[in-house]
UniProtKB/TrEMBL annotation:
It comes from the Bacteria. The lineage of its organism: Bacteria, Bacillati, Bacillota, Clostridia, Eubacteriales. This is TAXI family TRAP transporter solute-binding subunit. PANTHER family: SLL1037 PROTEIN (PTHR42941:SF1). Pfam families: NMT1_3. InterPro entries: TRAP_TAXI. Signal peptide: none annotated.
Amino acid sequence: MALISLFLTLALTGCGGGGNGNTSAPKQQFLTVATASPGGTYYPIGVGLANLWSEKLKDKDIRVSAQSSAGSVENVDLLQKGEAQLGIFQGLIGVQAYEGRGRFEGSPYKGLRSIVMLWPNVEHFVLVNSAVKTGSVTDIKGTKFSIGPRASGTEESTLVIMKALGLNPNDISAEHLGYSDTASAIKDGRIQGGSMPAGIPVSAITDLYASRANVTILEFTDEQLQAVNNLYNTWFRFTIPPNTYPGVDKEIKTIAQPNWLGVADTVDEETVYLLTKTIFENLDAVHGIHDSAKNISLDNALKGLPVPLHPGAYRYFKEKGLDIPEKLIPPGVK
């Protein structure tokens, strides 16, 4: 997705220097954070962080705007092309992009850096009750099912999970819809379900339950979790608490992978240091952005990060006394 705007031009001229060891921030910067489609969690959290940074770093001449996108996979492309400087990513997509695996086979993006873990990306495989047989995720077989927008993290993670559980794309009639459109299509009877991984609660799924669409969030067995991790070891057990969604008064045993904030290594150290510092010096405001943002804390900051830290984030966390795993130390930093 191309940004045809003055913001892009200024961002491209104002964000160089990180690769040359420059630690000082340029005089004026316009940065873009790539998110995902409205209706999920990436977009509102990206918008909230962009607004916070723009407000708190105004005196540093740093402005940040959020851009909707198809999700994690497109966000990698946007950063590589310089059309965005920051992005929110799934753990799976981060591993694949940095190591050149999966969708990025043979084309690793070694310029991808991490800033902070944001929140768990909880798998929501939603199916109309009339199609539910066992209550587990394999019930999607034989249904008309949305696997997310093309080139999105949702599509990639859904296909990985299906492959791990012995399902292939031909086992479903696949649709490629965003979260809001998925919910609308379920309510209209055009599809029977959809995959909508996000932080809880997912607004599109809240809408389904509130409108009494007669749906179920399918569960993962321990054996299914193990099978998924045998393919890509990035998921963990997650239990959705009772009453997270209207009328659902029991636990839902699903799985989750980490969501994290990434940045291109071309952004200078001082700018990323200020972005990181602003998050943790304004946690009350950050936690008010979305329920999922309440997971953001220094204790959780490094959990599950799939690629090395940016030098700016590394400097901030070192100042705070965090024990940084060797795999997260930026290349060239001793």
